[in-house]
Every structure is written in C-alpha cells, then in structure tokens.
Design a protein that fits this description.
alpha+beta, Surface presentation of antigens (SPOA), four-stranded antiparallel beta sheet, 4 strands, membrane, FliN_T3SS_HrcQb, cell membrane
C-alpha cells in the first residue's frame, strides 16, 4: 500500500456518522443478472432428479447404553431395544424420516411395505 492509499482511508468522524432515519429503500430495485442461473425448478424439470440415487434405510429400533456394557457384550449377548414388537419401523431416506413400514419377504429377500408417509417430508420437497 502506498502513502496515497493511506490518506484515502482516513475518513473524518462525520463521514462515518449518519442518521438511519435518512435511509430510504423504497426505490431500491434489484436487477436480474442474465448470467445467474434460474433457481426456480418447474415440475417439467423435476424428472432430472428422479434418477439421483438415494439410500433407503429401514430402522428396526435403537437403544442407548453405556459404552462399558457394549464393551462387555459377547456372542450370544442380548441388547434390549426401545421399540415394542409389532410397532411400525422407521423408513429413512438419506437419514431423514420418510415414514413407517413393515418388513416383507420378496423372493427370499427382505423388503418393506410402506404403511405411512410422513407428510412433512413431502412438504419439504414442494417448497
């Protein structure tokens, strides 16, 4: 920085003091930059997103236990979980709760039958 630049940066105190009542943004206009992408996604363009892979997880249950109990676990140990037998299981998509389901068997593989969709999850997609 040269000495002339330092002079330009020294503003008097009056230049920094202003009355916020004098500020008026009524006539403020924001111009659209033709180079910025249009972030509005039409329903027509939503097909692009339909091919993006997501991870679907069926969460049976969980439990919070002391680390010491887990360290003492061995083959044959039983850890009690917090869901009751017959309760719907949580279906998560990329870690976010989508709804609830039950386990089914399809051609010797596990599957899930969705029994409830979380409306809040679908509302988030529309906004």
């Amino acid at each position: 920085m040269n000495p002339n630049d330092e002079e330009k940066l020294n503003l008097d105190d009056d230049a920094l003091n202003f009355d916020d009542a004098e500020l008026n943004f009524d006539d403020l206009q924001i111009e659209q930059n033709s180079e910025s992408p249009n972030l509005n996604i039409s329903k027509k363009n939503i097909n692009f997103f339909k091919n993006i892979p997501v991870t679907v997880t069926l969460e049976v249950s969980s439990a919070t236990i002391p680390l010491g109990d887990l360290m003492n676990a061995a083959e044959g140990s039983v850890i009690e979980l917090d869901k009751i037998n017959g309760e719907p299981l949580d279906v998560k998509v990329n870690g976010t709760l989508l709804g609830h389901a039950e386990v089914v068997i399809i051609n010797d593989k596990y599957g899930l039958r969705i029994t409830q969709i979380n409306d809040n999850s679908l509302d988030d997609l529309e906004s």
